[in-house]
């Protein structure tokens, strides 16, 4: 699938392709919502916290789907946002991050089943920071993790409980999640929300410099 018109442009050395379109993301969130209810045996005690920045709109969408499936679940009263800026371990390298407000539902999170929601699970360091941040806002009975995309390459022993799509990637590739709430630039119909993977273009010179390829002739 080609990259949607008006999507964020990648450098010339990268090629981009769409992995999930708007309908794909909606189906993935619907499946995750059903999984959450099944694993919790209903909606009792559920709270969703989206990790700022793109985790929050995903949490809101999941909460809306939960409310449709289980009418006793109140989306607005059970959804919040968690900012992890000051808990990250890369602040020295990226000091210009702008903190977002942490918003905890009025019911709090103590004794509840908390579902952390994020867009991409990669090294696991974002989730580690989120768990540290939770210590300052309450003590849930259980913490589960829902992500739209799991791209692998974990650096910490962290696993998602609910995954929209497992996406095997190279460490040199970049996964971008574009949502209408957080990335409002115009995109073509059907790609208002999308997941894009940027891959480096491999040139003939790159192949020639690769270890073990010197003196080898290309196959005909």
Question: How would you describe this structure in keywords?
Answer:
single chain, about 220 residues, alpha/beta, Rossmann fold, 3-stranded antiparallel β-sheet, 4 helices
Task: Describe this protein's structure.
It is an enzyme of class 2 (transferase). Regulates the transcription of the pyrimidine nucleotide (pyr) operon in response to exogenous pyrimidines. Also displays a weak uracil phosphoribosyltransferase activity which is not physiologically significant. Keywords: Glycosyltransferase, Transcription, Transcription regulation, Transferase. This is Bifunctional protein PyrR. Belongs to the purine/pyrimidine phosphoribosyltransferase family. PyrR subfamily. This protein is of the alpha/beta class and 220 residues long. It has a domain at 22-88 and 98-169: Rossmann fold (3-Layer(aba) Sandwich), CATH 3.40.50. It is 23% helix and 24% strand. It contains four helices and eight strands. The strands form two sheets. A five-stranded parallel sheet has the order 3-2-4-5-6. A three-stranded antiparallel sheet has the order 1-8-7. Strand 2 (46-51), helix 2 (55-69) and strand 3 (79-82) form a beta-alpha-beta unit. Helix 1 crosses helix 2 (55-69).
Proportion of residues in helical segments: 10-25%
Poorly predicted tracts of residues = 4-11
Proportion of residues in β-strands = 15-25%
The first-to-last residue Cα distance is: 29 Å
Sheet with most strands: 5 strands, parallel
Mean of the pLDDT scores? 88
Q: Would you tell me which CATH topology of one domain applies?
A: Rossmann fold
CATH class of one domain: Alpha Beta
Reading side by side through the largest sheet, how are the strands ordered?
Answer: 3-2-4-5-6
- The appropriate CATH architecture of one domain is 3-Layer(aba) Sandwich
Element string (H = helix, E = strand): EHEHEEHEEEEH
Categorize the overall geometry. Answer: globular
Tell me the structural class: alpha/beta
Please state the CA-atom Rg, rounded to the nearest Å: 20 Å
EC number: 2.4.2.9
Catalytic activity: UMP + diphosphate = 5-phospho-alpha-D-ribose 1-diphosphate + uracil
GO biological process, one term: regulation of DNA-templated transcription
Family: Belongs to the purine/pyrimidine phosphoribosyltransferase family. PyrR subfamily.
């Amino acid at each position: 699938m080609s990259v949607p018109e008006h999507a964020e442009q990648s450098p010339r050395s990268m090629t981009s392709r769409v992995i999930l379109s708007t309908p794909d993301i909606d189906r993935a969130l619907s499946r995750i919502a059903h999984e959450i209810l099944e694993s919790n045996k209903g909606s009792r005690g559920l709270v969703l916290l989206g990790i700022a920045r793109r985790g929050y709109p995903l949490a809101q969408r999941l909460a809306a789907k939960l409310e449709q499936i289980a009418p006793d679940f109140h989306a607005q009263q059970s959804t919040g946002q968690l900012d992890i800026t000051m808990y990250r371990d890369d602040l020295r390298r990226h000091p210009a991050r702008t903190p977002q407000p942490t918003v905890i539902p009025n019911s709090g999170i103590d004794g509840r089943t908390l579902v952390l929601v994020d867009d991409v699970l990669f090294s696991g360091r974002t989730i580690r920071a989120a768990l540290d941040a939770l210590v300052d806002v309450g003590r849930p009975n259980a913490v589960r993790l829902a992500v739209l995309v799991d791209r692998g390459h974990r650096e910490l022993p962290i696993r998602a409980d609910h995954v929209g799509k497992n996406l095997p990637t190279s460490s040199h590739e970049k996964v971008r999640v574009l949502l209408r709430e957080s990335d409002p630039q115009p995109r073509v119909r059907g790609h208002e929300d999308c997941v894009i993977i940027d891959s480096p273009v491999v040139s003939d010179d790159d192949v020639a410099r690769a270890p073990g390829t010197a003196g080898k002739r290309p196959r005909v």
